[in-house]
Amino acid sequence: MPSKTTLRRIYIYPIKSASGIPLKSAIVERRGLKYDRRFMVVDSNNSFLTQRQIPNMALIGVKIDCDNLLVSAPNMPSISIPLEPSRPHRITVKIWEDECLAIPLQSEVSSWFSKLLGVSCQLVYMPKETERLAPPKYSNRKELVGFADRFPFLLTNESSLADLNFRLRKNIQMTRFRSNFVVDGAKAFAEDTWNKISINKILFECVKPCPRCKIINIDQNSAKHDPEPLKVLGSYRSQKGGIMFGNNLIAYDFGVVTVGDNVNIIKNNLSGI
Questions:
Q1: Of 114, 101, 106, which is closest to residue 49 (Cα–Cα)?
Q2: 206 — phi, psi (to 5°)?
Q3: Maximum Cα–Cα distance for the chain, whole Å?
Q4: What are the structural domain ranges in the chain?
Q5: pLDDT grade, residue 1 (50/70/90)?
């Protein structure tokens, strides 16, 4: 009898490319999990910054305390930021090919990030009225996305990581892949073949395998770089469009998901990627 696939972990990343927050349950909303990637650091040209350019962003600690986001970093004082800033000012920010309106945080917040990262930058927030669309090639219902790279949800598989770790000299943690949902009980890379799944009766479509970048080479606890993970993954997971690990999702329903929920495979694409 095949083992059940279950939701093993849930993560949100309120600030894009900062550390994640593990949750026992999370609210599925139109543009992703509640509070996920609603904030983003932009440079002096209002273009997004990530660990690709500044690995030390991995050291930015993030916690939720009531209605505030508590942000910390080594050798820096902690700061508190409203989870839903309501300042009237808007600026146009750039993320990949998209441009959208965002709220810039107060100057003292921008100064904190500029000092930490060693570049002139500022923290911005995506207000509710901003509608950034997921790529229309893979979504036909005008699904929204926050400041995530392309899609509102990302799923990875414990067995797929175990397969990669078997090939590495030193094991890495799933936190490097920065997924929202981590599942357990499925075979390695079974997620390649999933077309539709449900978690607690919430329907998701697996729209596109996720191409990986050099962020998976960055230890999320130390910000140290090691080129082996992406190199090894590329030796057997290179596909058209990139080196694939995990699957991007869009949601057809909304509600609450909880660690331990069954992940039901509703429709399989047996050809995989």
A1: 114
A2: -85, 100
A3: 59
A4: 7-33+145-267, 39-125
A5: very low
**pLDDT tens by residue, 12-38:** 999 999 999 999 999 999 999 999 999
pLDDT at 161 over 90: yes
Residue 93 corresponds to which tokens in the numbers above?
A: 């920010």
Confidence of residue 269 (pLDDT cuts 50, 70, 90): confident
List the CATH code of the domain at 7-33+145-267. Answer: 2.40.33.20
